[in-house]
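Appendix B. One record, verbatim.
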Amino acid sequence: MNKIFFLLLLFTISSTVSFAQEPYLHWVRELKGNNYNSVSRIITDANNNVYMLGKFTGNLDLNAGSLDTSIQATGANDYYFVKYDRFGNYCWGSFIENNTLDVNFMEIGPYGYLYINCGFTGNTNLAINSDTAEMAAPGNYMIIYDTSGALINYYNSSKTFYIEFDYSNGVMYYTFYNTYPQDIDPGPLQNNIPAGHLVMIKCDLLGNYITAKSINLNYNLNTYCKNIIHNKDSNEIILYLDLRLQVDLDPNVLTPPVYAAPQGSNDIVIAVYDENFNY
């Protein structure tokens, strides 16, 4: 039997307490499983709720001692995710089934929404805590849940590297590498991006498409996006690239092209765009 013990430790230091004081244990949470399980990510929100994500096979009890919180893996590579409040009480949990390829990230955004980017090989029910199934076809998705675990939205998105939230303007920015041609606007408009491109997308907090820019990397997977940052003071987008080849940083402008050519084998390039990805 495989078990996960999740401990939350709090160090309280005041003017009268020595730095050698023993840590104060707030609570312990046990996840019981009968096969392989692990923890991949732990994050907290503004209210100190705790979210945990990991892999499992077989059976896993997300709230040991309760009869209705066990989940059963259906594939060889399923992911669970679970929420506990600040006192360690179980709130809700579920899993992404059918041989999940990978969970690329899990982040807390505005309003406490949970953003998960992952891919899977089989038809999967993304609706948790609901009697109505929401089946998604095989692919890679951005999935958004509210604080109660209710599904808000999901849409196709290749493996996402980084995500940045602009709270004041109600938008988010994220990047991914497009390994196959893809329509990045899930609505009625067609916005097809060829394969082999690094894509930057701006959408609202519910995932509704606003605009995008793509940079042709010519299928060179040795060029990495290191980060995408929203500068709140200037409202600019800063893109960090680990560059291994010459790329055009502003492909929407035909002449003159804006090139960044590496001088060595591992150069860092910083490109700055406005909030709509104008170079």
